[in-house]
Amino acid sequence: MHRARRRFGQNFLHDPAVIEQMVAAIAPRSAQRFVEIGSGSGALTRPLLARGAMVTAIEVDRDLVARLRQWDAARSGALRIIEGDALEQPVEPLIEAAGGALRVIGNLPYNLSTPLLFHLTAPSSGMTDLHLLLQREVVERMAAGPGSRLYGRLSVMIQARCDVEPLFEVPPGCFSPPPRVTSRFVRLRPHAKPPLGDTDPAALGRVVAAAFAQRRKTLRNALRGLINETDMAAVGIDPGSRAERIDLAGYGRLARLLHPPSRPT
Known about the structure:
This protein has 2 domains: 6-190, Rossmann fold (3-Layer(aba) Sandwich), CATH 3.40.50; 201-258, rRNA adenine dimethylase, C-terminal domain (Helicase, Ruva Protein, domain 3, Orthogonal Bundle), CATH 1.10.8.100. The chain contains 12 helices and 9 strands. The chain has helices at residues 16-26, 45-50, 62-68, 72-76, 92-97, 113-120, 136-143, 153-161, 201-213, 219-222, 229-234, 248-258; strands at residues 12-13, 33-37, 54-59, 79-83, 102-107, 127-135, 162-170, 175-176, 183-190. The longest helix is centred in the last third of the chain and has 13 residues, at 201-213.
């Protein structure tokens, strides 16, 4: 029995009914290619392989990697194993290896969920969907709309990249050891047509980070030095508003002020 390691944020899913519910939501088909972030004890890896999927498992725990390499699927080539930190693994080569139709699954460690979400959703194309198990509040923040107390940088940046579909909750007792929070399974589908068009992603990131850095500030103060209030008003943004009142399209207009799209020649 593998002992969970706190430094890796390990909480192993073990409830058969929940695992079956997750696999049904993922609906894997034969020959589909998946990347799994943190295979752990293989709770999701095994049923995916049993349905004929091809799985690339990224696992940082070398003891778990050693166990995975003993599986028949690893010897047959259905299971490929990458030992290392998922944050350090480029996503684009994985998409290329999947022929531009990559699916991602994972029970993400709570202490790294936000950077992993930004990392995994960064590619603009080539990913079919992501099914992730996260802390419930993280999923609520991703799905939150303007005016909600949970609406923030994560909401805007993820919604600019993906459609967010919260699925079902997973109680702490379904894990070993049990976490101190309730989890939620979520489906992310990258937009076929980005809602903000050719808005520069880096400009959007700068504007959103500055706007939400101090939520109590008005935009005229939060974005001082980036965008002046006359320009804000010109694109329909009230400089006296706070960050949580601006919708995704509004942040797109602000980002385009910071970095206007290039005109065709």
